[in-house]
């Protein structure tokens, strides 16, 4: 209850970004503080990225909201997320997708374990967290209605395009030092639309950056 007012204030702030009501409702329901390390929980509803360990961050709430909004998630969809982090972004998507399912891939086992525990504590069961190379996607559950990439890639990894349904959408940051968020639509041609400058940790893996 101590976070309720701060959460309401954050939602009012997010409205200024033009985020749709379904995503705002999801953001209002997800307890972001449960996904954060104890030492930064007091900043849970401040609109800023926060450290979650392993040199990784949880994205600022407005970025999570904007990415979910761009994907135009519908009830019942199957979604692939690359970069589980602490599990928060997946939880927001689950609230929007309702009885659908989120598969989220995290290359760091310790973070994947943390994400699983956070999602369990927060009460989300229709999210599967898998340790692996997110640039390869997750072929065993493909194709996906939507793909959300929470790390910046040098370009769109070919396996992700292959695993995206025809008519599906993907959001992905591209670039290393200067990054742009793209909305990608898979139609007869691949359509890429720029959605603004961003700053994400780099995507590592076969089709990502290298250490």
Radius of gyration over C-alpha positions, nearest whole angstrom = 16 Å
Q: Low-confidence segments, ≥5 residues, pLDDT <50?
A: none
Query: So what's the overall shape?
Result: globular
Q: Largest sheet, if any?
A: 7 strands, mixed
β-strand percent reads 25-35%
What sequence of helices (H) and strands (E) makes up the elements?
HHEEHEHEHEEHEEE
User: Termini separation (Å)?
Assistant: 42 Å
Helix content: 25-40%
CATH architecture of one domain: 3-Layer(aba) Sandwich
Structural category = alpha/beta
Topology:
Layout lengths: L3 H11 L6 H9 L20 E4 L2 E3 L2 H11 L6 E5 L5 H10 L3 E6 L2 H14 L4 E5 L12 E6 L8 H6 E11 L4 E8 L3 E9 L13
Parallel strand pairs: 3-4, 3-6, 4-5, 6-7
Antiparallel strand pairs: 1-2, 7-8, 8-9
Task: Explain this structure.
A seven-stranded mixed β-sheet has the order 5-4-3-6-7-8-9. The longest helix is centred in the middle third of the chain and has 14 residues, at 109-122. It has a domain at 62-198: Rossmann fold, CATH 3.40.50. The protein is an alpha/beta fold. The protein contains six helices and nine strands. α2 crosses α4 (88-97). β4 (101-106), α5 and β5 form a beta-alpha-beta unit.
Q: What does this entry show, briefly?
A:
With 211 residues, this protein is α/β, with parallel strands linked by helices. The protein has helices at residues 4-14, 21-29, 61-71, 88-97, 109-122, 158-163, and strands at 50-53, 56-58, 78-82, 101-106, 127-131, 144-149, 164-174, 179-186, 190-198.
């Amino acid at each position: 209850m101590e976070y309720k007012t701060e959460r309401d204030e954050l939602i009012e702030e997010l409205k200024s970004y033009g985020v749709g009501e379904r995503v705002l409702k999801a953001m209002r329901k997800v307890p972001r503080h449960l996904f954060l390390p104890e030492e930064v929980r007091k900043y849970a509803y401040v609109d800023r990225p926060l450290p979650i360990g392993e040199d990784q961050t949880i994205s600022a709430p407005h970025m999570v909201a904007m990415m979910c909004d761009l994907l135009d998630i519908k009830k019942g969809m199957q979604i692939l997320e690359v970069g589980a982090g602490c599990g928060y972004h997946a939880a927001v998507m689950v609230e929007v997708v309702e009885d659908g399912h989120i598969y989220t891939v995290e290359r760091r086992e310790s973070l994947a374990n943390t994400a699983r525990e956070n999602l369990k504590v927060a009460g989300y069961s229709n999210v599967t967290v898998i340790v692996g190379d997110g640039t390869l996607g997750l072929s065993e559950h493909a194709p996906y209605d939507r793909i959300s990439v929470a790390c910046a890639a040098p370009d769109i990894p070919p396996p992700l395009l292959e695993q995206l349904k025809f008519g599906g959408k993907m959001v992905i940051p591209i670039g290393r030092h200067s990054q742009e968020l793209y909305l990608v639509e898979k139609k007869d041609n691949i359509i890429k639309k720029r959605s603004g400058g961003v700053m994400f940790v780099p995507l590592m893996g076969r089709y990502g950056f290298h250490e």
